[in-house]
Amino acid sequence: MDTVDTLAPDTPLADQSLGQIAVALPGATALFRRLKLDFCCGGQVSLRAASEARGLDLPALLQDLAKLERDDQPPAESQPGALIDHILQRYHQVHREQLPELIRMARRVEAVHRDHPQVPTGLAAHLETMEAELLEHMAKEETVLFPMIKAGPPPFVVHPIGVMREEHLQHGEALERLMALSQDARPPAGACNTWRALYAGIIQLSDDLIQHIHLENNLLFPQFEPASAAAAGCGCSGH
């Protein structure tokens, strides 16, 4: 079993193991699964060797992996429209991609390792709850609040913003529960690649959601509400 959890900067990605890539590059597991590349039990095999064995186009595969490297920089100008577009592409779209894969891996880890003393019992169910709540929250922003802001916000826009701020506090509480269930996303010694990739993905989800909420609470929303409301905080503990 491969126990290395970081990419080697001096080694081309093609020559690194499936296990290394799965753990170090959240989102790679879904791609590997679609292509039937075994990153868990067969995780010691290099990407190059695995793609050759399955007759895959290695340059195209490397391009797909490169797309998983996401740009975290918000627009230089905090114009509402540009900031909203960045939030939609970098965070809303990404949350919709990352949560189903995390749920799938959590179910597998809980089933395969159910007798392990550190198995994260209840993790998949909690991730499912988080997904449902986030999907509902993002739909409200995409169908009501964001179009309202882009069209030229009316005076009562403060009310829907207040609702979003309150839900952000709930997301922060859900993140705290997520980290508690996963022991701060620290896999136990000897954990398989799926378990380690799951926890790497949880760290990425936590970082993404905290940054997502920060951009809305501290950059976007204050442009349309009194200063007292803008001081409410994001509700995230910064895990």
Automatic annotation (TrEMBL):
The organism of origin for this protein: Malikia granosa
The reply on keyword Metal-binding is yes
Q: Give the Gene3D superfamilies listed for this entry.
A: nmb1532 protein domain like
Q: Name one GO molecular function term.
A: metal ion binding
Where is this chain primarily localised?
A: cytoplasm
Entry keywords, A to Z: Cytoplasm, Iron, Metal-binding
Q: Which Pfam families match?
A: Hemerythrin, ScdA_N
Per the record, the domain of life is Bacteria
Keyword Nucleotide-binding among UniProt keywords = no
Q: Where is the protein found, in the record's own terms?
A: Cytoplasm
Gene Ontology CC terms:
cytoplasm
Listed name of the protein: Iron-sulfur cluster repair di-iron protein
CDD domains recorded: Hr-like (cd12108)
User: Which residues are in the Hemerythrin-like domain?
Assistant: 84-223
